[in-house]
Amino acid sequence: MPDPSILPEAPAVPASATRAQGEPVRPAPRLSVVVGSHNARATAAECLDALTRQCAAHEAELIVVDNSDDGTAGVIRARFPGVRLIETREHAHIPELWAVGIRASTGAVVALTTAHCVPGPGWVRGTLEAHAQAYPGIGGAIDNHPAAGWAGWAIFFCRYSQYMRPFPEATNDEIAADNASYKRWALERYREAWRHGFWEPTVHAEMRRDGYELLRTPGVVVYHKRSFTARGFVRNRFSHGRQFGRDRAAGLGG
Length: 254
Prior knowledge:
- The protein is an alpha/beta fold.
- It has eight helices and nine strands.
């Protein structure tokens, strides 16, 4: 795997730098967490309960990018007023929400998930510890939440079963961005690959082309609780595939 030390790191923010108003600029955090949120009213509070505690303990930045029409944003504003909430266009897909959040983030490492997933204990700590290794991208496990109903289990097996535990820590061609994190230098190097949205297969293909490996570890886990009804899942997958295809075509066309 190429030596990441030869690639440009995200510029550090000098501790002595000042804002125009004369207030000191806070150093960039070690970790930014970006949560893509779409119609997650039933799960957003549990997701953010876990994340706000863990992010506070590690001084991590937390950003939620939401395009719900079910009142999710209102729940977030009411229950988590300290969370940075970015609201965007209704028809954006989760990878497009992630791209908005990545651009707004400042951390040396950026972790991604969705408001339909509940991070397990030690998720933030485990992410930071995993990035002591040189891999540009690291993915964790996705298990199904014990409270998931039959539709949740069906969706889980269609979408996430290959990421469920047990599995050994090892390099892998693919990791799911629903529980993945990336070093800032890698996101900047491959910025063009996620210009139209953070569609992870496209980004990962670019990394592999340059000789980089991705790591998958069972020690960083989220629990998928509920994302769609069965009908909504089929509709979402169809729309997701069409948008991914359009964006790939746009990328190939320059």
